[in-house]
Design goal:
By secondary structure, the protein is α/β, with parallel strands linked by helices. The protein has a single domain, classed as Ribonuclease Z/Hydroxyacylglutathione hydrolase-like (Metallo-beta-lactamase, Chain A, 4-Layer Sandwich), CATH 3.60.15.10. The chain is built from nine helices and eleven strands. Strand 7 and strand 8 form a beta hairpin. Bound molecules: fe (ii) ion. Fe (ii) ion binds next to loops.
Length: 232
Amino acid sequence: MEIKQFRYFNDNLGYLVFSGNEGMAIDAGGVDAILAFAAKNSILVKYMTNTHFHSDHISGNAELLEKTDAQLIDCRKIGDDQSFTIGHEKIDVFTTPGHTMDSVTFKTKGFIITGDTLFNGTIGNCFSGDLLAFFNSLKRIISLPGSTKVYAGHDYVMESMQVAKTIEKDNPFIDEYIRRYDRSLIVSTLDDELHVNPYIRFNADSMIALLLKKKMPAQTEFDRFKSIMEIF
Ligand SMILES: [Fe+2]
């Protein structure tokens, strides 16, 4: 399965996932760019869907449906562990409630599309208010192989790394992560995230030591997740 990233509204990131001559548009805000890429590569947009139903992510839905014969898959109705066939390959979807209750994550062998659940460098706001659900969603994502590439819903890399430095000023991996920043393609691996993204570092020895030093709750993984969320 291949993937092409499309930036729109400055920091929003949408995608065309494709195999052979079929594709699935996900958070298709940059409609013209997606259609130009699809036409150039003889890709038929078979499906159109979203990572969650926030206005910036669904902004291209109507136009894309008008300009193509794509079938709309309403992400609010996607069940857990559903999959869709594109070309001769499959893309799986699992529910990742937290940022919103309708948030989903798309998964193929090599990459995931995480919307506003996990960003490169940070995590989304827990607008649902269900912090435990959010934590469990993140746990499920980080249980995937470390080499899995993370394609998120926004480019917040630089701001995120400033926050990461505030939380863990001695983390040696942050500067390297910043050096690799390339505005034309925002991607990292889960392994990269586990080294720099403070919100999923609740099992890192240095993070646990830091929480203990701050006398913050650090007994369970969830305690530590909540404590890190409180630092910044
Ligand atoms: Fe969102």
